[in-house]
Amino acid sequence: MANLIVVCGPQAVGKMTVAESLRDKLRYNMMMNHDSIEVSDRIFGFGTPAQREFNSYFREKAFELAVKHDVDLIFTYVAAFDLQEEHDYLHSLEKMFEEAGGHFYFVELSATLEERLARNETPHRMEKKASKKDVEWSRANLLEDAKKYRLNTNEDEVLFEHHLKIDNTELLPDEVADRVIAEFGLVANVKEEKEYRFGA
């Protein structure tokens, strides 16, 4: 039985660093949304039809294999909550893991726009996400999406049985991870480091 933790929120809110902390504390495997994006960009070019299709296939297959092989997984994701297709996609992941006997946990992060703009330019972010090295483009994309989409749920909106909202503007990633673990009563796996963070 595999569990899935989705760490969701707008660009540069801190999803990756929180997910990395959860990975190391729980010995869960981890897939960033940018893992599939960067690979598909390199092969098929930025924003092309083939890139979008491969990106989708990459993620779909990773989830299928996690369920098949009982691999607990953390996934970082940016959702536009004003789009029904986003709700449908997230609920499909919930259904996939729960029908296989696992659990689905949804961690929603939020932070001020000022803090997100600062985090957008951190060396760690640019090291892990090649597309973010163009800081001017990345900043413009962040601001555009903030205006165009609703990247956090409404205050009284709860989408899942296990849905935790955290404003991490002033919290360290480890503090957020500890709160998630305590809230959901999660227990670390017994795994060798190479099994869950090889090459990380």
Explained architecture:
The chain is built from nine helices and five strands. The protein has 200 residues and is an alpha/beta fold. The chain has helices at 15-26, 33-44, 49-68, 84-99, 113-119, 123-128, 135-148, 173-184, 193-197; strands at residues 4-8, 29-31, 73-77, 104-110, 163-167. The chain has a single domain, classed as 3-Layer(aba) Sandwich (Rossmann fold). The longest helix is centred in the first third of the chain and has 20 residues, at 49-68. The protein is globular. α1 (15-26) packs across α8 (173-184) and α2 packs across α3 (49-68). The protein has a five-stranded parallel β-sheet with strand order 2-3-1-4-5. The mean pLDDT is 95.
Task: Give structural attributes.
200 residues; alpha/beta; Rossmann fold; five-stranded parallel sheet; 52% helix; globular
